[in-house]
């Protein structure tokens, strides 16, 4: 019984990795179940044992990405007790990621929102939940910092992060990574006046 569960876990993992790669390269609607199973070497029946549909597979990818994102977030602010330093560290880390690779700022959730615009669709809901959680966390940090308008500032900081991610795809290597840090610092400091 244990071996069977390990095989299932290995098959599920292989499907998640393969589908993620294919969706990144070609988009969500362009990749069908037949392509995913062919590329992964996993049978269609096994795939459906793990995921009732392609949409459920996408949601599982988004959930995994959410876990990785929050792990990155917590590591980024770890050891920083001052909320302002936490906010700045987030922007510095995003800017640094961009310097490592243009693909590092690819936002899976933005891509999903474009291909699944229906707010009632399970894939769209998973993307919205993730983005709302970021916004809430930014607002919490702004509140902890005692800033004048934590809600509006959190939304502005969120828009800068989102805009940077999408603009990096269009501008490429010349994307102004340092500008997002400067913009964030300027906005945070203005809330102290």
Automatic annotation (TrEMBL):
It comes from the Bacteria. It comes from Paenibacillus alba. Residues 9-69 form the HTH tetR-type domain. Keywords: DNA-binding, Transcription, Transcription regulation. The keyword Oxidoreductase does not apply. Gene3D superfamilies: Tetracycline Repressor, domain 2 (1.10.357.10). PROSITE patterns: HTH_TETR_2. InterPro entries: Homeodomain-like_sf (IPR009057), HTH_TetR (IPR001647), Tet_transcr_reg_TetR-rel_C_sf (IPR036271). This is TetR/AcrR family transcriptional regulator. Residues 32-51 bind DNA. The keyword Transcription applies.
């Amino acid at each position: 019984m244990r071996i069977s569960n390990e095989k299932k876990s290995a098959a599920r993992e292989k499907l998640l990795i393969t589908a993620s790669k294919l969706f990144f390269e070609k988009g969500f609607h362009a990749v069908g179940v037949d392509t995913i199973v062919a590329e992964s070497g996993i049978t269609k029946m096994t795939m459906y044992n793990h995921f009732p549909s392609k949409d459920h597979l996408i949601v599982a990818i988004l959930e995994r990405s959410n876990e990785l994102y929050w792990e990155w977030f917590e590591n980024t602010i770890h050891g920083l007790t001052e909320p302002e330093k936490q906010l700045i560290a987030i922007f510095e880390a995003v800017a640094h990621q961009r310097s490592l690779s243009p693909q590092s700022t690819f936002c899976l959730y933005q891509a999903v929102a474009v291909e699944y615009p229906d707010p009632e669709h399970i894939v769209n809901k998973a993307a919205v939940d993730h983005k709302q959680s970021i916004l809430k966390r930014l607002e919490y940090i702004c509140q902890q910092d005692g800033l004048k308008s934590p809600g509006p500032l959190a939304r502005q900081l969120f828009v800068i992060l989102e805009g940077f991610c999408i603009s990096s795809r269009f501008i490429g290597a010349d994307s102004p990574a340092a500008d997002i840090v400067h913009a964030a610092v300027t906005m945070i400091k203005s809330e102290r006046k």
